[in-house]
Amino acid sequence: MIDYSLYLVTDRTHFSKEEFLSIIVAACQHGITLIQLREKDITTIEYVNWARDVKQITDNYGVPLIINDRVDVCMAVDASGVHIGPEDLPVKEARKIIGEDKILGVSANDVPAAISAYKDQADYIGVGSIFKKNQPVERQMAALKQLKSIVTDIPIPVVAIGGLTETNLYLLRDSGVAGVAMISEIMQSSNVTEKTKQLRRSIQLMKGGIYH
């Protein structure tokens, strides 16, 4: 069983490779349950090299590594799985390539798209952006309602992403999500160790419906 509770999506911007990898180590040591290597503006060989370095760490800590978009990179480094969006390889084709044993995540922002991905053998659905910057409250509430509808209508795990922070996690307390995905909240933290520990505690409370 995969634990989607605290899902780190990477962003190497502004970091040296050494700094980046040290963040991955700290996150794996202190509570991250899944990592998605999501890097843009990078050549294929660079992506493969970064993925190999990250996988060495995630394997050491028993944390599944997901590759964003690139099925070829996933297969090249034997990552745990791949996450694709609506403009990437079709879900059915991705499943054929990676086989039955790897994790297949799919981004979907409405119920029909989520159901389609489920039928095409996605293992989990990523839903976002839940809280866009400067988004009106009404839009936030609409995004939460859509998230809950997707959770209700599909029998596979749903992960929320987009603008999620330690301070707004409580808004997901009755959503039924399997976990939350975060980028800057962790990557940009001044203390990744303490931030990861606190997020794990907060998510446990949120999922238990007792977040205050």
Automatic annotation (TrEMBL):
A single GO BP: thiamine biosynthetic process
- What does the cofactor section's free text say about binding? Binds 1 Mg(2+) ion per subunit.
Q: Which cofactor does it need?
A: Mg(2+)
Task: Quote the pathway field.
Answer: Cofactor biosynthesis; thiamine diphosphate biosynthesis; thiamine phosphate from 4-amino-2-methyl-5-diphosphomethylpyrimidine and 4-methyl-5-(2-phosphoethyl)-thiazole: step 1/1
Residues annotated as binding 4-amino-2-methyl-5-(diphosphooxymethyl)pyrimidine are Q36, L37, R38, E39, K40, N68, S107
Gene Ontology cellular component list: cytoplasm
Any one GO MF annotation of this record:
thiamine-phosphate diphosphorylase activity
Which residues hold Mg(2+)? D69, D88
> Any idea where the Thiamine phosphate synthase/TenI domain is?
6-186
Q: Which residues bind 2-[(2R,5Z)-2-carboxy-4-methylthiazol-5(2H)-ylidene]ethyl phosphate?
A: G163, I183, S184
Origin superkingdom? Bacteria
Q: Which reaction does it catalyse?
A: 4-methyl-5-(2-phosphooxyethyl)-thiazole + 4-amino-2-methyl-5-(diphosphooxymethyl)pyrimidine + H(+) = thiamine phosphate + diphosphate; 2-(2-carboxy-4-methylthiazol-5-yl)ethyl phosphate + 4-amino-2-methyl-5-(diphosphooxymethyl)pyrimidine + 2 H(+) = thiamine phosphate + CO2 + diphosphate; 2-[(2R,5Z)-2-carboxy-4-methylthiazol-5(2H)-ylidene]ethyl phosphate + 4-amino-2-methyl-5-(diphosphooxymethyl)pyrimidine + 2 H(+) = thiamine phosphate + CO2 + diphosphate
**What's the Enzyme Commission number for this chain?**
2.5.1.3
Please name the Pfam families in this protein's record: TMP-TENI (PF02581)
List the keywords (alphabetical): Magnesium, Metal-binding, Thiamine biosynthesis, Transferase
Q: State whether keyword Disulfide bond applies.
A: no
Q: Which residues cross the membrane?
A: none
Supply the enzyme class, top level: transferase
Per its database record, what is this protein's job? Condenses 4-methyl-5-(beta-hydroxyethyl)thiazole monophosphate (THZ-P) and 2-methyl-4-amino-5-hydroxymethyl pyrimidine pyrophosphate (HMP-PP) to form thiamine monophosphate (TMP).
The record's HAMAP family line, in alphabetical order, gives: TMP_synthase
Name the family. Answer: Belongs to the thiamine-phosphate synthase family.
What is the protein name stated in its UniProt record? Thiamine-phosphate synthase
